[in-house]
């Protein structure tokens, strides 16, 4: 059984990872469009 704290930490880590991934993709697309 996963505790509430573990679930929250997992959700936060997943959210941060997702936001970082989106940020990298947006940055790459921006660089490509500028060329």
Characterise this structure.
Keywords: Membrane, Plasmid, Transmembrane, Transmembrane helix. This is Putative holin-like toxin. The chain is mainly alpha-helical and 35 residues long. The protein has one domain. The protein contains 1 helix and no strands.
First-last Cα distance:
51 Å
Share of helix, binned: over 70%
Q: In percent, how much strand structure appears in the residues?
A: under 5%
Shape type: rod-shaped
Number of strands: 0
Give the ordered list of helices and strands: H
Low-confidence stretches: none
By secondary-structure content and strand pairing, the structural class works out as mainly alpha
Number of domains: 1
Average of pLDDT = 96
User: How would a crystallographer describe the biggest sheet?
Assistant: none
| Spatial extent as radius of gyration | 15 Å
Task: Report the total helices.
Answer: 1
């Amino acid at each position: 059984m996963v505790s509430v704290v573990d679930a929250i930490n997992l959700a936060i880590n997943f959210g941060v990872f997702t936001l970082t991934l989106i940020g990298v993709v947006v940055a790459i697309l921006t660089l490509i469009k500028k060329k």
